[in-house]
């Protein structure tokens, strides 16, 4: 009875605020996690036991932890493959531009040699290209040194960050931009600098070749051979890109990720904590994906796939929907509730669901202050499957024949 009375007493001091949410003595809203919402809706006593430190037990609990870790690793590997695909495609396109440049040099040498293009004109063009390459090189160095991104308020893609939606995207789980090799106040090497540096190198090679090549026949042959070698090198980058694309598709198929849009976040233990100061709600979704302009929370559940989402699971995804709306100011139209790698339920987000979620949060805050948590069902099967049943003072008696 001692344990039972302890589990039914108050957890903390507080009072109901003017907006319906409960606050502590300093006026701060009582904190409620999205995971706590799921436990409370499942059974208030199970929630109270988790708060008191009673750990969930059973093979299903451990399997759930392993499945979440496996899914996170799968998403990280997919993102790495996507980054490798993008990087290799961009490098291939740049290297192919070098091939075109060398091909142009081959043609120029051939026509100069045949007298179709004036030798002095070719030399003047070469000098102009060298000068242009020097200007571009100086520009790239200036962009490398100066913090022009901070001055202009632009991100890596040179797009202004207009609202909380962009702020959240920039602070999600680090699925890093592979082109940002250095980041600091006075030195950042990103895609603009890389493109300008590459262009400067290509122009300088082109200009030097046109300016200083004395033996046009030999130069034509050497440039042609170099173009062929560079073509083979570019082919290796294309092959690497195709291999990375294949890995992306394999991860999509393995984890059922192809239906989830562009995943921007995966909770690996060090992700951003979303928090709403008004309701006191906080939490970290398993994943956040982007569909169109909307950030969509994704919650993964293991075990038997139900015919419809469990009520407790549905309220957990509602909690994440509210957190994203609170942080960004843009309400997601729905959230994804996944059971395994094949079954995905779409949970709508509207005013009715918002009111239902707030009612549960306020009830949890009230029970935290006044006490009174107890089992709210008479279902032996549900009680039997509870991971805290062994220590629960409210557990139902289940005959041995069951």
Descriptive report:
There is one protein chain. The chain starts with a helix and ends in a 17-residue tail after the last helix. With 402 residues, it is α+β, with helices and mostly antiparallel strands. Helix 2 (34-42) packs across helix 3 and helix 4 runs antiparallel to helix 9 (216-255). It has helices spanning 2-8, 34-42, 44-51, 59-113, 119-145, 148-152, 164-170, 191-212, 216-255, 311-328, 351-370, 380-385; strands spanning 15-16, 22-23, 32-33, 262-266, 274-275, 281-283, 287-291, 294-301, 334-339, 343-348. Mean pLDDT is 79; it is low at 1-5, 156-165 and 173-186. It has two domains: 2-69 and 260-391, Lambda Exonuclease, Chain A; 79-255, no CATH class. The chain contains twelve helices and ten strands. It is 56% helix and 10% strand.
């Amino acid at each position: 009875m001692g344990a039972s009375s302890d589990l039914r007493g108050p957890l903390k001091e507080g009072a109901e605020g003017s907006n319906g949410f409960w606050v502590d003595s300093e006026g701060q809203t009582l904190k409620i996690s999205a995971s706590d919402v799921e436990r409370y809706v499942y059974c208030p006593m199970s929630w109270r036991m988790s708060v008191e430190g009673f750990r969930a037990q059973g093979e299903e609990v451990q399997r759930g932890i392993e499945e979440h870790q496996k899914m996170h690793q799968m998403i990280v590997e997919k993102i790495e493959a996507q980054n490798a695909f993008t990087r290799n495609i961009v490098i291939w396109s740049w290297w192919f531009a070098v091939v075109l440049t060398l091909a142009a040099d081959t043609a120029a040498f051939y026509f100069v040699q045949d007298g179709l293009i004036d030798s002095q004109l070719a030399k003047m063009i070469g000098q102009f290209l060298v000068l242009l390459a020097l200007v571009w090189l100086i520009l790239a160095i200036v962009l490398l040194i100066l913090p022009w991104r901070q001055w202009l308020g632009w991100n890596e893609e040179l797009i202004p960050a207009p609202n909380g939606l962009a702020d959240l995207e920039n602070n999600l789980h680090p699925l890093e931009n592979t082109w940002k090799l250095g980041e600091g106040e006075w030195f950042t090497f990103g895609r603009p600098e890389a493109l300008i540096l590459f262009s400067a190198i290509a122009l300088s090679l082109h200009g030097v070749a046109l300016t200083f090549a004395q033996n046009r026949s030999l130069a034509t042959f050497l440039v042609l051979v170099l173009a062929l070698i560079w073509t083979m090198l570019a082919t290796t980058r294309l092959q690497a890109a195709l291999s990375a694309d294949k890995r992306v598709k394999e991860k999509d198929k393995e984890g059922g990720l192809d239906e989830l849009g562009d995943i921007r976040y995966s909770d690996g233990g060090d992700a951003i904590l979303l928090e709403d100061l008004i309701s006191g709600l906080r939490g970290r979704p398993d994943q956040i994906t982007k569909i169109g302009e909307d950030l969509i929370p994704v919650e993964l559940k293991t075990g038997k796939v139900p015919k419809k989402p469990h009520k407790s699971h549905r309220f957990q995804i509602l909690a994440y929907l509210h957190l994203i709306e609170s942080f960004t100011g843009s309400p997601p139209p729905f959230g994804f509730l996944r059971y395994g790698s094949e079954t995905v339920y779409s949970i709508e987000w509207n005013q009715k669901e918002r009111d239902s979620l707030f009612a549960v949060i306020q009830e949890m805050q009230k029970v935290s202050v006044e006490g009174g948590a107890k089992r709210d069902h008479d279902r032996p099967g549900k009680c039997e499957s509870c991971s805290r049943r062994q220590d629960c003072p409210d557990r139902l008696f289940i005959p041995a024949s069951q």
